[in-house]
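Re: [ENG-882] Designed sequences occasionally contain unexpected residues at chain ends

Forwarding the minimal case from QA. C-alpha cells:
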C-alpha cells in the first residue's frame, strides 16, 4: 500500500468503530482496507463497524460485497456515512444506518495504523487511562501518558512520548530485541518477551529511558536520547 491507503483514520464510538476512508478509487480503498484488517485480525475481530466513505458513489453490489467480506472476518458493518446521496440511499436499502453519534471529546479514541513495509505501527494521540488495554501485532507509539491501570501489549517496540505509569509488554510473541522507551519511565510493570521487571518508583527529575534485554538476558533500563 502506498500514499493515503497506508493510513486509516479510526475513532471509537459508543456503538463501535468509525473507520474513515478517502476519495481514492473504491477498489483500491476496499483492497487496502481489507489488507489492513487482515494485518490486525485480533484488533478488528468482533467489531461493529461504521464506515465513512467520503464522496464515494457506491451501489448495492459493492456494499453487499464489502459487508460479506467483513462478515467473513467476524466484523459487523452497521453504518455507512457518505456525502453521496446515491451511496446513502444504497446503505438505507440494505438496512444500514447513515448517521452515527459523535463521541464526546474525552471518549474519543483517535489513532492511525501505518503500514511500514514489513512492519506495522499503531499511533495513539491520547493518554491511556486506567482500564484501557491496547493489544497490537506490531509497534505501538503513544503521544501521551500511560496511566496506572492501563496496559499495552505489542509484538514489536513500545514508545511512550510521555509518562509511563501503567503496564507494558513489548515483544509479546517472544521478540527479545524489542525495546520500551518513555520520557518518564515509572511503570507498574515492564515486560519484554518473557523477561519481567518489577515496578519502578516515580523519579523526582525524570529523564527519558529505554528498557531492553541486555547481553546477560536481563531486562534493564538506561538513559535514552530521543531523536
Amino acid at each position: 500500500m502506498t500514499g493515503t491507503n497506508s493510513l486509516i483514520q479510526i475513532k471509537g464510538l459508543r456503538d463501535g468503530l468509525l473507520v474513515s476512508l478517502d476519495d481514492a478509487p473504491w477498489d483500491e480503498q476496499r483492497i487496502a482496507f481489507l489488507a489492513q484488517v487482515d494485518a490486525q485480525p485480533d484488533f478488528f475481530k468482533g467489531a461493529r463497524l461504521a464506515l465513512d466513505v467520503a464522496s464515494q458513489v457506491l451501489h448495492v453490489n459493492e456494499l453487499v460485497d464489502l459487508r460479506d467480506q467483513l462478515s467473513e472476518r467476524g466484523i459487523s458493518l452497521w453504518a455507512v456515512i457518505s456525502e453521496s446521496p446515491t451511496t446513502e440511499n444504497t446503505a438505507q436499502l440494505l438496512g444500514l444506518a447513515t448517521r452515527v453519534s459523535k463521541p464526546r471529546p474525552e471518549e474519543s479514541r483517535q489513532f492511525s495504523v501505518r503500514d511500514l513495509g514489513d512492519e506495522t505501527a499503531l499511533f495513539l494521540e491520547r493518554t491511556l487511562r486506567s482500564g484501557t488495554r491496547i493489544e497490537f501485532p506490531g509497534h505501538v507509539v503513544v503521544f501521551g501518558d500511560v496511566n496506572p491501570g492501563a496496559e499495552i501489549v505489542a509484538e514489536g517496540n513500545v514508545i511512550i512520548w510521555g509518562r509511563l505509569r501503567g503496564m507494558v509488554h513489548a515483544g509479546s510473541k517472544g521478540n527479545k530485541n524489542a525495546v520500551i522507551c518513555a520520557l518518564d519511565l515509572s511503570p507498574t510493570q515492564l515486560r519484554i518477551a518473557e523477561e519481567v521487571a518489577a515496578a519502578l518508583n516515580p523519579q523526582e527529575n525524570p529523564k527519558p529511558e529505554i528498557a531492553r534485554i541486555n547481553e546477560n538476558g536481563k531486562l534493564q533500563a538506561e538513559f535514552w536520547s530521543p531523536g
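QA comment: On inspection the terminal residues look reasonable. The chain has a mean pLDDT of 82. Proposing we downgrade this to a documentation issue.
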